[in-house]
Design a protein that fits this description.
The structure is a single chain. By secondary structure, the protein is of the alpha/beta class. The strands form eight sheets. A four-stranded mixed beta sheet has the order 2-1-10-9, sandwiched between helices. Helix 2 crosses helix 4 and helix 15 crosses helix 16.
Length: 604
């Protein structure tokens, strides 16, 4: 494999190319440079693609009979460009299919490979919503689906096409490159109930977002990306596929399963392949700390090449930032490399991010003021708090950086649309070239979400309503939670992630990202419910009842709040998004419908 020697990322503000045009450029000027490498078990290189090989595979798919059939079907049933479902495990086949669809002017709709009936239902809903019957996949996935779900009505009418089988004809030249306003991708959100919503991402959105990402966290000639995030998810796709192609640097990919089985593999791959850029939600950094505590930091681990460790959870946990930085400082990890950011599929991905030349910003805030919508820094609070010391009067807020390029962020009153002053909590609104075209086939919802108007002539133009809460402080964005997830008790706002963080500290054996807090109405009052997943280690002292008592005590001490119900479920029972975040609304649904009853009885 030949590593690239120059970085040719387009950086000018005018005449930016689309991703298909970037790939053609790479294939012509650097055909034998390595573009992507897949690591078997997250460790050893198993397969790789040069720019020439990727271009040939993408062209073969774009001009082959399967895509021709999709294009011949014309416009999809909802009036958008022809579409095809992309059903791939993380790997090089997904990369080739994504670029092949872009070459052909077909909107790809990535979907997680289903492992059970619930996932199969989601696959069918997405195919129906996208207006397609074509599912591009691998021969192994095709065989597995047909063997396990061949008689399912969810597969009836769908055509599974394996794209990893070599064609007999050489690849042809694709048609004219897509226009900037053409739909490049239908990125379906991780919605847990009802029909999934497809975000219409244009080629212009992709190039604007990746250009801003490269401006915020510049890639150099010796840079490399290491990624374990699922490629069908927006963060995994942008960091694992789009950014390295745009910047002309190699990407080393591993499966999410390899990371989950042993988180240290991620860091070892960064060390071995001199990764400079990576990204993950906050819980992934916590898992690495836990893995190091149990097994020790591997001898020879060298993270000095890592310049950008993007932390994409909202909100980012200060305890995770602090613990990861301290644990791996001896391995060369710099505090400045931890780069919290904020993004969402409706903005293609990145909206804000922390620069790589300074440590993350920490604000220690008065908890009571924050619950009433004001961010009031506590000047006399010690910097760098000890996470083992519970202080319910203080909330640690980590900054998610600022915007770059043409993206603008404001905080608005969600009821009136009035822009709010700094240090006032409201809904985060975004505008700029990265904001997507809308939701596929949902005109009214698209208008309400993507074309909102801020009050005042100085705020003319369309704004994206994110549904997330936060505030600005010295121009930096701080995210506090989801508008729909806020728990109101006695007139005060409590953010579920704060309650969940306290619950997770109830027992050292509890894993990060193992709790969901939400409220339910029992007909007479709003009740606070906590669902906590645990394995045998967390249950060794007093069983489920003992763990419930410890969780109650931890939340009471950390939040000055008493849960009405604590439910203990087996590990893996909590529903999570494709990026690993807990789905609170789906957890609430399963709780109210009694689906957790078999795992554990709730105790009040």
């Amino acid at each position: 494999m030949t590593a690239p020697t120059t970085s040719t990322a387009p950086r000018t503000a005018t005449a930016l190319p689309t991703l298909p045009e970037v790939l053609r450029l790479r294939a012509r000027t650097r055909p034998d440079d390595t573009a992507y490498v897949f690591l078997r078990n997250g460790e050893e290189p198993e397969r790789s693609l040069t720019y020439r090989q990727l271009d040939e595979r993408a062209r073969a798919l774009a001009t082959g009979p399967e895509i021709a059939a999709v294009r011949a079907a014309g416009k999809s049933t909802t009036g958008a460009a022809p579409a095809a479902v992309l059903l791939y495990p993380s790997g090089l086949d997904f990369v080739a299919a994504l670029l092949g669809c872009m070459y052909a002017g077909v909107a790809g709709a990535p979907v997680q490979v289903p492992s059970r009936a619930r996932g199969l239902t989601r696959l069918r809903r997405i195919a129906d919503d996208a207006g397609t019957t074509t599912v591009l996949t691998t021969s192994a996935v095709q065989r597995d689906l047909e063997e396990r779900f061949g008689d399912s009505e969810q597969l009836t009418g769908l055509t599974l096409v394996a794209t990893d089988v070599p064609g007999a004809a050489p690849p042809k030249e694709p048609a004219a490159p897509p226009a900037a306003h053409d739909i490049a991708l239908l990125q379906y959100t991780s919605g847990s109930t009802g029909d999934p919503k497809g975000v219409r991402v244009t080629h212009a959105n992709f190039r604007a977002n990746v250009a801003e990402t490269d401006l915020l966290w510049p890639c150099r000639p010796d840079s490399a990306v290491v990624n374990w995030l699922p490629l069908f998810h927006d963060m995994g796709m942008l960091f694992g596929v789009v950014l390295p192609l745009w910047a002309g640097i190699p990407a080393y990919l591993m499966s999410p399963e390899a990371f989950i089985r042993r988180p240290g593999r991620w860091l070892e791959a960064i060390s071995r392949f001199r990764g400079s850029h990576t990204a993950a939600p906050s819980f992934a950094y916590e898992l690495c700390v836990r893995d190091a505590a149990e097994s020790g930091v591997r001898d020879g681990l060298d993270l000095s090449s890592l310049r950008v460790a993007a932390n994409g959870a909202e909100p980012v946990r200060w305890g995770a930032v602090r613990a990861f930085t301290r644990t791996f400082a001896a391995a060369g990890f710099r505090a400045e490399a931890m780069c919290p950011g904020y993004g969402l599929a409706e903005n293609t991905l990145k909206a804000t991010g922390s620069r790589e030349d300074r440590p993350p910003t920490l604000l220690r805030l008065d908890a009571e003021s924050l619950r009433t919508g004001r961010a009031h820094p506590v000047d006399d609070a010690p910097a760098g708090p000890d996470p083992s010391v519970v202080d319910p009067s203080v909330v640690d807020a980590v900054g998610c950086g600022t915007t770059v390029g043409a993206t603008t962020v404001r905080v608005a009153d969600p009821g009136t649309g009035t822009a709010l002053p700094e240090d006032t909590v409201g809904e985060i609104w975004v505008s700029g070239p990265c904001v997507a075209d809308g939701y596929h086939g949902r005109g009214a919802e698209s208008a309400a979400t993507f074309r909102a108007r801020l009050t005042g002539a100085e705020h003319e133009g369309d704004w994206l309503r994110t549904g997330d809460l936060g505030f600005l402080h010295d121009g930096e964005l701080f995210v506090t939670g989801r508008l729909k997830d806020v728990i109101i008790r006695k007139g005060r706002n409590f953010f579920p992630q704060d309650i969940e963080a306290s619950a997770e500290h109830a027992d050292p054996a509890l894993r990060p990202n193992c709790a969901a807090a939400f409220s339910v109405d029992d007909g007479s009052a709003e009740l606070l419910v906590l669902v906590v997943e645990a394995d045998g280690r967390a249950l060794r002292d007093g069983g489920a009842e003992g763990l419930r008592a410890r969780v109650r005590r931890a939340v009471r001490e950390g939040q000055r709040l008493e849960p009405d119900t604590v439910v203990v479920v087996r590990r893996g029972a909590l529903p999570k998004t494709s990026s690993g975040k807990v789905q609170r609304r789906e957890t609430r649904r399963r709780y109210t419908e009694g689906e957790f009853a078999a795992a554990s009885a709730a105790g009040r």
